[in-house]
């Protein structure tokens, strides 16, 4: 049993080393299935200049990575976006030629909603178990 | 000693594998602190010769702990926590043979542990609202066992009156145990720094020795 437990832990360690090597922003870890082609930079710039600053956008880059954030600035050659993160981070500049597609983000944070729901559910479950244990334990 | 060496090996494997490339980037949070309560399940082997129900688990234990952690990177955290549980009770019933007469002895064991845990954790994701983690470490437990014996009587063959073979008494024992554990848990942030946390911890010694579920609140610094 102990050897099995050791083996399981070492497997976790080996797996997590791969995660560490690819550490970075969450969107940067997505492995692209295929490389998207860049949109016409001039057309893309024209489109983005019609979006008001502060728009929530989802940017798909030509390398397959996805960036979700707030559009801060649009220039002829690049845009500046601040990622949606828990702790605010420095805005990033994305060259226009690396943008494959930009869509307006609906604003619903699915991950956050799921996280809060899971946390609340687990908390409620443990709370009930905790009360039962305390009551039945006399 | 062997479990301790195994635990150290596990912690070292996790630590060395997970963060060498990230040490040049300072983590979002340097440290955190948390207060948790939970449900502790301890395995307590019934003594040899015990009759009756062979339940080797003490389940009705409420556990509380305070803990703190230090982030080496956004993914690697060394955590330490200190806590204790209420007493778990185990009913014991055994046969006693004295002078050709058979009788039975009953006792109630109260088991309570105070724990100090040191672990190495790997936290998934960076700067998100929900962060799962896995971890491994060692648990240093001070285990107090108090056993109340209710006494055993026999009927005197001459006078036919009951006679105490073993009088009621209490025995106590304290031991320090060091055992490895693994854990799985998460932090769900309510604000940029405050979080709800929960984890499940499994301790090993000749198989699963303890299962602990905890939840609580904490803050990043």
Describe, in plain words, how this protein is organized in 3D:
- The complex is a heterodimer of chains A (138) and B (221).
- Chain A is of the alpha+beta class and 138 residues long.
- Chain A is built from three helices and five strands; from the N terminus they run H-H-E-E-E-E-E-H.
- A five-stranded antiparallel sheet of chain A has the order 4-3-2-1-5.
- In chain A, a hairpin with a 4-residue loop joins strand 1 and strand 2 (66-74).
- The longest helix of chain A is centred in the last third of the chain and has 27 residues, at 110-136.
- Chain A is elongated, with a radius of gyration of 22 Å.
- Chain A starts with a helix and ends with a helix.
- Mean pLDDT of chain A is 75; it is low at 13-33.
- Chain B has an eight-stranded antiparallel barrel with strand order 1-3-4-6-7-10-11-12. A two-stranded antiparallel sheet of chain B has the order 8-9.
- Chain B is mostly beta strands and 221 residues long.
- Helices cover 8% and strands 67% of the residues of chain B.
- Classes of the chains: A alpha+beta (138), B mainly beta (221).
- At the A-B interface, helix 1 and helix 3 of A face helix 1, strand 1, strand 3, strand 7 and strand 10 of B.
């Amino acid at each position: 049993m102990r050897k099995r437990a050791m083996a399981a832990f070492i497997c976790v360690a080996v797996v997590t080393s791969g995660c560490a090597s690819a550490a970075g922003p969450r969107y940067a870890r997505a492995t692209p299935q295929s490389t998207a082609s860049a949109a016409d930079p001039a057309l893309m710039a024209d489109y983005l200049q019609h979006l008001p600053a502060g728009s929530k956008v989802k940017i798909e880059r030509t390398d397959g990575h996805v960036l979700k954030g707030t559009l801060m600035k649009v220039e002829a050659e690049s845009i500046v976006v601040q990622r949606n993160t828990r702790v605010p981070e420095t805005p990033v500049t994305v060259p226009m030629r690396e943008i494959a597609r930009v869509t307006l983000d609906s604003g619903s944070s699915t991950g956050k909603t799921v996280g809060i729901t899971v946390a609340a559910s687990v908390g409620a479950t443990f709370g009930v178990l905790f009360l039962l244990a305390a009551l039945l334990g006399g | 000693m062997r479990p301790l060496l195994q635990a150290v090996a596990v912690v070292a494997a996790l630590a060395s594998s997970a963060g060498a490339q990230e040490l040049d980037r300072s983590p979002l949070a340097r440290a955190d602190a948390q207060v948790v309560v939970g449900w502790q399940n301890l395995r307590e082997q019934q003594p040899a010769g015990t009759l009756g129900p062979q339940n080797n688990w003490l389940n009705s234990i409420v556990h509380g702990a305070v803990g703190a952690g230090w982030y080496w990177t956004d993914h690697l955290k060394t955590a330490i926590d200190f806590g204790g549980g209420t007493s778990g009770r185990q009913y014991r019933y055994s046969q006693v043979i004295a002078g050709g007469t058979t009788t039975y002895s009953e006792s109630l064991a109260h088991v309570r542990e105070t724990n100090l845990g040191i672990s190495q954790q790997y936290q998934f994701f960076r700067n998100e609202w929900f962060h799962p983690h896995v971890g491994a470490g060692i648990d240093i437990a001070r285990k107090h066992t108090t056993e109340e014996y209710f006494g055993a009587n026999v009927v005197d063959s001459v006078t036919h009156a009951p006679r105490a073979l073993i009088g009621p008494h209490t025995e106590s024992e304290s031991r320090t145990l060091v055992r490895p554990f693994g854990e799985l848990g998460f932090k769900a942030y309510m604000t940029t720094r405050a979080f709800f946390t929960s984890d499940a911890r499994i301790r090993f010694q000749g198989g699963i020795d303890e299962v602990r579920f905890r939840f609580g609140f904490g803050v990043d610094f």
